[in-house]
Design a protein that fits this description.
The structure is a homodimer. Chain A is α/β, with parallel strands linked by helices. Helices cover about 50% and strands about 15% of the residues of chain A. Chain A has an 8-stranded mixed β-sheet, with helices on one face. In chain A, helix 18 links the parallel strand 16 and strand 17. In chain A, helix 6 runs antiparallel to helix 7. The longest helix of chain A has 26 residues. Chain A is elongated and about 105 Å long. At the A-B interface, helix 24, helix 26, helix 28, helix 29 and helix 31 of A face helix 23, helix 25, helix 27, helix 28 and helix 30 of B.
Chain lengths: ~900, ~900
């Protein structure tokens, strides 16, 4: 067995080698392969990084491999690393398998030292350029490799500018920069405790190790967790000969998207800056110019860019995100990758590319991240309200945001994680702000452009972003943002429209969004492909109607407890609970009957014969009474403040009832079918209301409602047997009274672990199983959601003990095993048992795909998640096909 | 396929046909087969009862079958049913597969009517006897078959006695009884709404149906539930020719045990009454005479009884419970069955019979019901206290009882089920009192003997019983018992010693029991046979010592939270909880360290190198603070009563902390390893205390403690991985400080369903699994024990929805499946993974046997249950062997 190869020339690789070479490296190799101009170099593999992470050292022989590839590169470029006459300069960039923009480290201009900088000046005839490159290198190396606070270098630069009266960096002369380089080396030594390394080979290896290490930095870990990227992949390191966009006015740099990433329009979309390095564009330090303006300075290169755009889109069959640099009028491509896009853009591109014949419908379906759909369906600013525009910036990521102003990422996380809506306002953002962005409703920056950090990350997260609000002065020490005479202070309400770039003061009203035609087209394809049915959770006719507009094919969960909570009903509910006898309870239940019947009537009409699963009363009865502590406090207050004996006696009676119903662990107490078993009259009333409503609706519309009655919290077959009999007895009595026939089925929630484990017994009594994954998760994990979130669960997530919140993403290894077991056992008894899921997971893509793989019949989710579930369900089919094909190969 | 045979003559059956013929019938057949004198008859099978229960009618052809067998019986006896000259009279008795004494119905003297009674009088020349039989038959038939309140017949009898001035029943003349018969028929017609049926065939079939129906009466169902007897077995019906013990002074009846059922002594033990029917002995209406006194009246029959005793014990190889009747000096055996016995008797008999060569040790082990062991180990009256004996009766069932007096079974159940100790005091008990007996600490009766209902049932339940306290007058209307000048009223404390028959006034002190030599011998055999190790749950050195005297082989669960609750420690615990910083917490933890170390030191010394599993802190921290409601009430009280600002501020601070820690469902909240993960300093302190104590004990005793550290409430591998590392880091630090080496292992509780489902992952981090079946039951069933018992669980048990309390008997179908899955998955990764159970189920026989079958290494239970677990573990091995043998046959 030969030694592992850890280093590849660009010419040795191709796009399929991503796992080994990383995304960036593989694409550089691929571009090289198809004749696109790329500055040459080599790639240290992800495996080398994994080895380094585990062992803290290079694999044996790799140093020599690097040296050999460097030699080859020197030969190819005709330059030599450290050559005082004509030095080879290198860029050292991370490149992971999955894109993690800005998360890991980069070092540019490597190879410069006091000798080579002079050589560079001589070779280019541009001393200012040489020292500008040098000072950038010292700062970046000091920050990334030596761990010095970058602010210290920035301050030294500003001090120098003040000293010589330079307004902007370009006002600094070559001599100013030469002096600055010395001073920056002083800053580096002071910060790092050791001197700047002059030896370029030493620089190279230190930089490679720094990139390896940056794989495990905090922000990269956080990012991977939010994106579900495994921690054990490692990053490749791209060592590439430098080209300079900052060599003078015939040089420049830019970024572009082959289509508009915001709208999806099929138009070349990009920005450039002359005499600048790439970081200047991305970081938003200078405001870049739109691509078409390049016509004015380098029309030939613009034409070449158009050709490359065409070539790359055809080659990759997807919208590309490009980086380029022009050095002395010569164009080089530095990167290509599939571009991030907003949800509307994703739909438009998919529809257009299918129409163009570039991709198939199945590919079009796979191009859309279902999670992105969420943003499209998120509420928009109500167009009917009067809103005063406070300021305008670039509409960098669409969507509406309303929240209180915060000026710091930690604060944003602090408040946002507690469910408080915040808008993050920054001069610009950087990768250290990622946790704040995650917890904000949106982000507004005074600097930066459409491709700035804030814009790219916000689009990725589906959050609204307004970038480059130039009229806004942000003071993050004072925590204010000033726009003319208006000062936004921390805690002030701010609203934003990320599509138009408008910022508003105050708390704007939001309205639900609808589908656009591209989304409808793609969801139409999804409906043709998917096998899973998609239902909605809806408790009201209004919810039911909204969900149907999103394509819901039925109601998977209609909760009846919210109906009990309404103002005009609660007194009857409370009187029923306070009753001492069955007769008394029945009297109060009789008063509730018409209300319940009316609820179901509306829902059956809205669903027009689609299936409606109604869950009988589930929560413990004490939820309908005042809390125990409030009741006791009121009693003590009456006693201590000399209330009348009658008042005290009344409160004592209430307190006694509340106490008798109080529970140590209500989640595991008298709820669900345990109510119906102890007080059958409650469920009997509900069943009567359901069947009467169904009969009424059938009589008036001529269409039979599709009724499914669901018994909650069953753990034992006998429980369901009893409640099934009660339901049948009551329903048959109503049908006999009404002299009609209505079909109905009776099923159960599977939400108690025991029900999953004994599903072969429970299936004997059930026409369907609906997995209540919220409660099943609580019990299987022993996680009370009320007590976990904001407490230990938050701790677990923040320390990486858990990768995802199990209440958002189904815990497939734990809860999922129980679901799979229940499906298998249930169907061993009833092969056609209908199964579905009605927890919140029914609207989360990975969970929907799990449901498909596990063979469920349907998922049910909140109305706004229905489109997402339709898409995820289709993708599950396509992923299955792909896996089958692969297995067959 | 031929028609099913539903009726068998005694001569057609044998002892192995119990499932079909019931216990009594099969034994009557067996006695017939081996030549013991038995009044002949036939048996209607249990299958007929099952058919009747389901269909409400006889199976086709069965009526004819009965008639055919009746004809054969008439031929055999030379008597004919309904023959006015020489009538055949029948007894109709239930006979289930498992003995259910007194639970179902019996009809005697069937066949009597106004004509046959005269024939009986003529044939026997004893008119008084004939009418006495007739009046008994009318009453019994009215009660059992026609559903008339038996009290009504009893009152009529008393009225007649008063009328003629008869002190006892035997004072009534033949004419008195003839008149009484007419009056009883009037009572029957008034109560039942129809006349007494004169047709003996009608009587026969009505009685058979009544016995079938009695299978499903309430008390029978309750009894079956307590005994774990399935509801679908049905009862057989024994139709047997009557013999009369009440035919005059040459007739009699009696019951006997082939050995003493109370002590186990190898001595013939019985009671008889001349001129009486069997019910007179069992019901305790007349006080019977001890068997040896039969020498004085019928020495020949006594000799025959001794011979039969010998024959039957040899034949059945177990102590027999016999019923006999002498009719005109001719001896008949009416029943034989394996006799119930007290726990001490069971041990003595097993040891004696093995010594006698009657049975093998394995058989001896199987002869003892582990549940019975419980009574033997229950506390005894402290012999050191001065006790004044109030009265003395028969020591009918041993054991000490202390409780408040109750005079009615419902009241006993009411109080007893709430955990209040009660002593049930009755004139006599009957099967309707069974629920009251179940919930009492003991029972005292003023009537009846050693074989009375109260005595038999109490022995079966392992409860103390004193029968026949003749000096005591019980008035169950007034709810008093009067003994001389002393009146015991409801609610007065009473103490009793069921072994000596002594009754005391007041609340006596109890002390723990110990093993006797027979028990030790049997447990010695058990230890040779069993594979399961038996450990104990012990939190203190004292518990540990007690458990070792009972044979505990280690501690399976040492909880550390009780150590936190002790008075001198709680302030430090509370200060630790109130701390805002890690440093502050560590300061208070340092104060707790010496206490914890001392706790572990004592336990390690007590266990002398046996394994000790210590669970790190488990309960939520708010358990160590005042309750939320109390804190808020105190705050309001301070506010409303003008307390100082400082007092209020202090209480507000406490309230804020209590509120921040309050949980909606503490069972599923921040507890177990979630404490150690968020505040590692707590677990670090505990591990330090454990290892320091182990080092101290090793240094001073030279013997290395066997330390097992257990992490509670693990649901994810990563949780255990972190806590394992914390434990190792801390332990290694202590060992380095002390410069010693102590072996320790680290394992986890499996109590969260997810842990069971993902046991193959968790096993990677665990040296052992200990199933915490209390919590695993709570979570798997969604049964909060605090909220279930006394509420829905009590409802479920009382309505038969559940057969057993899952917190007492392991729910093998639900929780058991998770345990089996966890063992299998855990061992798939670590074939030698040590597994045990430490919930309360570790001391319940069926659960212990489940643990054996599932392949666990040990069970752990409370100290007093250790012997029970040793025995059950041995029986599990023997049952497995028997099953293997059967499967191999």
């Amino acid at each position: 067995m030969g030694a592992t190869k850890y280093v590849y020339d660009f010419s040795e690789g191709n796009a399929s080698m991503k796992p080994l070479l990383g995304g960036k490296g593989a694409n550089l190799a691929e571009m090289t392969r198809i004749g696109i101009p790329v500055p040459q170099g080599f790639i240290v593999t992800t495996q080398a990084c994994v080895y380094y992470s585990a062992n803290g050292a290079y694999p044996e022989g790799m140093e020599q491999e690097i040296n050999d590839h460097l030699k080859a590169l020197e030969k190819l470029t005709g330059k030599t690393l450290g050559d005082p006459k004509n030095p080879l300069l290198l860029s050292i960039r991370s490149g992971a398998v999955f894109s993690m923009p800005g998360m890991m480290d980069t070092v540019l201009n490597l190879g410069l030292n006091d000798e080579t900088v002079a050589g560079l000046a001589a070779a280019t005839g541009n001393k200012r350029f040489a020292y500008d490159s040098y000072r950038r290198f010292i700062s970046m190396f000091g920050d990334v490799v030596m761990g010095v606070d970058p602010q210290a270098f920035e301050e030294e630069l500003w001090a120098k500018r003040d000293e010589v009266g330079a307004k902007v960096d370009t006002d600094l002369t070559a001599d100013d920069l030469e002096d600055l380089c010395d001073r920056l080396k002083g800053v580096l030594k002071a910060g790092a405790g050791e001197s700047f390394p002059n030896d370029p080979m030493k620089q190279l290896h230190l930089a490679i190790v720094a990139v390896f290490k940056s794989w495990d930095n905090h922000r990269a870990k956080v990012y991977r967790r939010t994106q579900g990227i495994p921690d054990d992949l490692g990053t490749a390191v791209n060592v590439q000969s430098m080209v300079f966009g900052n060599k003078g006015e015939t040089s420049g740099t830019g970024v572009a998207f082959t289509r508009d990433p915001s709208t999806g329009e099929n138009a070349f979309y990009g920005e450039f800056l002359m005499n600048a390095q790439g970081e200047d564009v991305v970081a938003g330090v200078r405001v870049p110019r739109p691509l078409p303006e390049m016509e004015q300075v380098q029309p030939e290169n613009l034409k070449k860019l158009y050709e490359i755009r065409e070539t790359l889109e055809k080659h990759y069959r997807d919208m590309q995100d490009l980086e380029f640099t022009i050095e002395d009028e010569k164009l080089y491509m530095l990167q290509t990758r599939n571009g991030k896009r907003t949800a509307p853009a994703a739909f438009k591109m998919a529809v257009d590319m299918v129409a163009e014949g570039l991709i198939s419908k199945d590919e079009g379906l796979m191009r859309i991240d279902p999670a992105q759909l969420d943003q499209l369906l998120h509420p928009r600013l109500d167009p009917k309200q009067e809103l005063n525009v406070l300021a305008k910036g670039l509409g960098a990521s669409p969507g509406a945001g309303v929240g209180t102003a915060v000026f710091d990422a930690d604060e944003a996380e602090e408040l946002g994680s507690k469910g408080r809506p915040v808008i993050l306002i920054r001069w610009e953002t950087n990768p250290d702000d990622i946790h704040g962005l995650m917890h904000s409703q949106g982000v507004i920056t005074s600097h930066g452009g459409m491709t700035s950090h804030a814009a790219v990350v916000a689009r990725g997260m589906g959050k609204p972003c307004i970038a480059g609000v130039q009229d806004m002065k942000v003071d993050d020490k004072a925590k204010t943002a000033t726009i003319g005479a208006v000062v936004i202070k921390e805690g002030d309400w701010v609203s934003m429209d990320g599509a138009t770039g408008r910022v508003f003061l105050g708390q704007a009203k939001l309205v639900p969004a609808g589908e656009d035609e591209n989304m409808s087209a793609v969801l139409g394809w999804a409906d043709e492909v998917r096998r899973l049915r998609v239902r909605t959770n809806a408790d009201t006719p209004e919810d039911a109607r909204v969900a149907r507009t999103f394509g819901a094919e039925g109601i998977g969960l209609c909760r009846t407890e919210h109906m009990f909570m309404q103002q005009e009903r609660l007194p009857h509910v409370q009187a029923m609970i306070m009753s001492d006898t069955t007769e008394e309870r029945e009297k109060h239940l009789a008063r509730l009957l018409p209300f319940q019947r009316e609820d179901f009537d509306g829902i059956f009409r809205a669903m027009e014969g689609l299936p409606v699963t109604i869950r009988l009363l589930d929560p413990p009865l004490h939820e309908f009474l005042p809390s125990y502590v409030d009741t006791m406090l009121e009693l003590q207050r009456l006693q201590l403040t000399g209330a009348s004996a009658a008042e005290i006696a009344k409160q004592e009676a209430l307190a006694a009832k509340v106490k008798s119903l109080a529970e140590a662990n209500p989640m595991l107490g008298t709820r669900g079918c345990r109510l119906g078993i102890q007080w059958p009259e409650i469920y009997a009333m509900q069943v009567r209301a359901i069947i009467e409503a169904a009969a009424d609706v059938m009589a008036s519309t001529g269409k039979m409602p599709h009724v499914e009655i669901m018994i909650p919290l069953v753990g034992f077959e006998q429980e369901l047997k009893l409640m099934r009999q009660l339901t049948i007895d009551t329903a048959e009595q109503v049908l006999a009274e009404r002299k009609v026939k209505i079909d109905y089925t009776i099923g159960t929630m599977i939400e108690v672990p025991r029900a999953a484990v004994t599903a072969d017994q429970i299936a004997n009594q059930a026409d369907f199983f609906s997995f209540g994954t919220n409660d099943l998760t609580q019990m299987t994990l022993a996680f009370s959601r009320d007590d976990a979130e904001g407490k230990f669960l938050t701790h677990y997530l923040s320390t990486d003990l858990l990768k995802a919140n199990p209440f958002e993403k189904l815990d497939q290894q734990g809860v999922g095993q129980l679901i799979a077991m229940a499906v298998q056992k249930g169907r061993s008894v009833k092969p056609n048992l209908k199964t579905g899921i009605c927890g919140e997971h029914g609207g989360e893509p990975t969970s929907v795909k799990f449901c498909h793989r596990t063979g469920l019949n349907y998922v049910s989710c909140s109305p706004y998640r229905v489109p997402l579930a339709r898409l995820a369900a289709a993708q599950a089919v396509l992923e299955e096909k792909a896996a089958d094909k692969k297995a067959g190969d």
